[in-house]
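S1.2 Input.
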Amino acid sequence: MTRFIDVPTMSRLVQAVGLERFIGELADTLREDFIRWNDFDKSARVASHSEIGVIELMPVADAHHYAFKYVNGHPGNTRQGLPTVMAFGVLADVATGYPVLLSELTVATALRTCATSLMAARALARPDARRMALIGNGAQSEFQALAFHAHLGIEEIAVFDVDPAATDKLLRNLSVYPGLRLRRASSTADAVRGADIVTTVTADKTYATILTPEMIEPGMHLNAVGGDCPGKTELHADVLRGARVFVEYEPQTRIEGDIQQLPADFPVVDLWRVLAGQTVGRESPQQVTVFDSVGFALEDYSTLRYLLQQAEAHGLGQPVALVPEAEDPKDLFRFTRPGASRAVMRRVA
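S1.3 Output.
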């Protein structure tokens, strides 16, 4: 049987593990897999674009497991009461192709994205970073704030969004963390002034310049999370030119990341090489570093691997008959006969 994790089960799983511990352990799992980068069969995601959004498939595999995620990005969805991003994914056994896990990945993607930002910042930000700016206060924002507060020592975060209601929501949700000081900024420039780390998580599918050169201060680390498809950016090109830029999977980031604005020979550094100790990250305390994060399939592989491990440990997730099971595996016709569904239900029970 395939283990199935739906949204209520995901909620129970996060609560069973503990949200802060979940983020930290997921970041550690991501790092473990990034370090063994060359073990994976990798490709850029397959995207179907429309004028109002994008739908993508994100596959990756190693010798043991194959994973894929279905995910969309439709910024206008919130006007219809739907999330901007919705996702689900599968983890399968490479030896047989059998799907061992089918999971919701909408909540899990928010968790893996903040865990990926945390993983990168641990390697790239200044060790004495204590102040952060968070530009874009939508569905991803609380996760980013908590990851950096709980695991990187961030004590103060200046927050800004063009939608005041989004900032109201963020402040309300994070009010239960008394050790985290939150300041509502009046603008992006106001938020980033004096920040050690700046995270941008905006949603609009447009060429945007959320951060411009005059906002950048020596030693900043920038997590550019929102620019993740062709025609969607957050950083002015000169911000990139003045920084050391790190990427997940270069062939994908050249198309989807903020570096899509720059020539194909603009130098970037593979994040996995820094994590594996093959090259340095930050070269000096004054250097500006940028993590041009677009989201890569390996991160979803790591998330599904961690979810399966925790679901088994906590006895969560329901068995579902996603694949026919029969005495004769060559006889699929029997599942079209009367009584076949009852036999399957008895096996699930």
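S1.4 Remarks. The longest strand covers residues 65-73.
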